[in-house]
Amino acid sequence: MGFSTxxxxxxxxxxxxxxxxxxPVHLTSTYYQEELGVNKGYEYARVSNPTRTALEKNxxxxxxxKEGLAFGSxxxxxxxLFHLLKTGDHVVVSRNVYGGTYRIGKLVLNxxxxxxxxxxxxxxxxxxxxxxxxxxxxxxxxxxxxxxEITDLEGVANICRKHGVISIVDNTFATPYLQTPIELGIDxxxxxxTKYLNGHSDMLGGLIVVNRPDLNEQLRFIQKSVGAILSPFxxxxxxxxxxxxxxxxxxxCSNAMEVAKxxxxxxxxxxVNYPGLTSHPQYRLAKKQMRGFGGMISFDLxxxxxxxxxxxxxxxxxxxxxxxxxxxxxxxxxxMTHASVPPDQRKKTGVTDGLVRISVGIExxxxxxxxxxxxx
Length: 376
Ligand SMILES: *Cc1c(COP(=O)(O)O)cnc(C)c1O
Known about the structure:
By secondary structure, the chain is an alpha/beta fold. It contains 14 helices and twelve strands. It is 38% helix and 15% strand. Pyridoxal-5'-phosphate (PLP) is lined by residues 73-75, 98, 100, 141, 145, 170, 172-173, 192, 194-195, 204, 206.
């Protein structure tokens, strides 16, 4: 089955009691049991819910993994993954990860005796060098937020297998339509479903896909024990969003390519980060492991003042956090998504004060470009 067919059909079956073609939103906390030990596979809704199950099966099929697990937000999914660890364990993380991932590692879980090292994973040697006996996990993001750095997925999978370390990829930016890390040997993929998967900026959710039965069993246990599950209504919204994921991603990619080409020609723009530009330092790697370059771009206007002025002037492009919705969103990473990253760490990773991030929407690209032009 092709990707678009799976997006529409995987995990979704007509309701056995009514024939309802669309997955019902099962608003129940508990399930009737005919007698002790006799039920239809559902007992309590924190453990499982049919609407959530449909989404979990759907995302597993799209990522080419065995099992899916749905959580109340991307951070709830990331938190569940770090619950696989014990005091004293060490994690190697991409230096440019989502600000929230940095925050939970450095400012929350450090207090529980977990140790996080943030390294430049675009060079695989840095990963090998950072792995020590206590290392249990390598957690990467590719492309990274917001500087669009690319990490070699197959290379990471090989290093992790060699050291017996769990490999995790935050696939939020690429989505399974453009990149399937499990097929390249990665153990676990996670998503902020809030972004492209749902795609309409109207819910929060997190998804995990695993390919190893042992990890699935541990994560199911964590999911019901910690309890940060996705609600049935949000599961339903996300399922509906995913049906059009391929169509939306094609448009996000083509619009972003045009916007990136426009930006490189503007004299006010010092640099543009987009993996689809041949000038991107890892253009060839992106081309090899991705089926498209995505809808995210960042560019440097030189100073905080210039960025601030530009962001005040945009009209169609909404100044807002988040990304991956049908509408174009624009943001200032240094003071928004990455505010909890210390300034010296930000500077090291290219999150400069003049950096602006744009999540290119599916509007007519001429209108997006016209807005950027007047704002510049
Ligand atoms: C937004 C985001 C998250 C966090 O997800 P939430 O749904 O906001 O909790 C994690 N990783 C990436 C790459 C993100 O963009």
